[in-house]
């Protein structure tokens, strides 16, 4: 039995990022793995897995490319096809599999789609929402197995998509871990507490909310803190202006864009991670932070927050638009720096539940299972 992924992308800009470690672990279970992608072209180190960008489907012309997709997959035998989410590529594969019934189709759903919506932005009307739901139900009804990554995704599949219970398998299959989980060295009670935020600099990620919260800090607390923002994007100039206007130039450090490998060192140089997103399907930044032994101030609008944070044990979950509460949690860590190691060690223990090895094992077991088991 072979495994074939047919997906929109893996990683970013031909860099597999967290997917490389998962595929390497998956290779230990199954050597016959192929990956066809629209956006990614890469080799998985220490395996014979090639992520091929020659997948013949474009962003808007997927339906027209179905004959090419049929030719690509018609020779596959004893194969588990894996598709992800509800994009045009998934729809095209579903249609092809109606004619290639010998192929077993597995749909991956990472989380409950409600986390893609925030405030009044990106909220479709009732008619559009209903049409989207019907479209997703069609896809879910024409696959053999639905693998959900979270309890929220599982409930969505069962209750909204009406997938039969015996076709849904809930196992964590996607994570990001940057370091050996015993690599963290703690030195609590330093001169300053270093907070780190990582992500693309745009409105949705909420870095402006972080700047506003820091501007509200008491002067004594502010002197105890240092803030690092790792990333780049369209909002960078705006964030720099806010930092200048609030006289926080000596408090913030903006690193610009960093490679996946470089980000690890930034995490290890910090004490506490802050996630201020206004909406994230399931941000992997939090998993990276706990793998580096960092406590977290997490956003309630991040679909991963309940996975990575145990309230009061390794961090806090807040609404980042509540500037006062965000400032209070920053202040708490600044005034309780001797507890950062305690919180950080809890994060490390938590991270052991979300390793690439566990994700790969879960994915393999789910993909190879039978719906009637």
Give a short synopsis of this structure:
The protein is α/β, with parallel strands linked by helices. 36% of the residues lie in helices and 17% in strands.
Characterise the protein shown here:
There is one protein chain. This protein has 373 residues and is α/β, with parallel strands linked by helices. It folds into 2 domains: 2-175 and 355-368, 3-Layer(aba) Sandwich (Rossmann fold), CATH 3.40.50.2000; 193-351, Rossmann fold, CATH 3.40.50.2000. The chain is 36% helix and 17% strand. It is built from 14 helices and 14 strands. It has helices at 18-27, 66-73, 88-97, 126-141, 151-160, 207-215, 219-223, 236-245, 260-268, 285-291, 305-308, 323-335, 340-351, 356-368; strands at residues 2-7, 33-37, 42-43, 50-52, 79-84, 104-109, 145-148, 168-170, 193-198, 225-230, 252-256, 272-274, 296-299, 315-318. An 8-stranded mixed β-sheet has the order 3-4-2-1-5-6-7-8, with helices on both faces. Strands 11-10-9-12-13-14 form a 6-stranded parallel β-sheet, sandwiched between helices. Strand 10 (225-230), helix 8 (236-245) and strand 11 (252-256) form a beta-alpha-beta unit. The two termini are 18 Å apart. The model has no long low-confidence stretch (mean pLDDT 90).
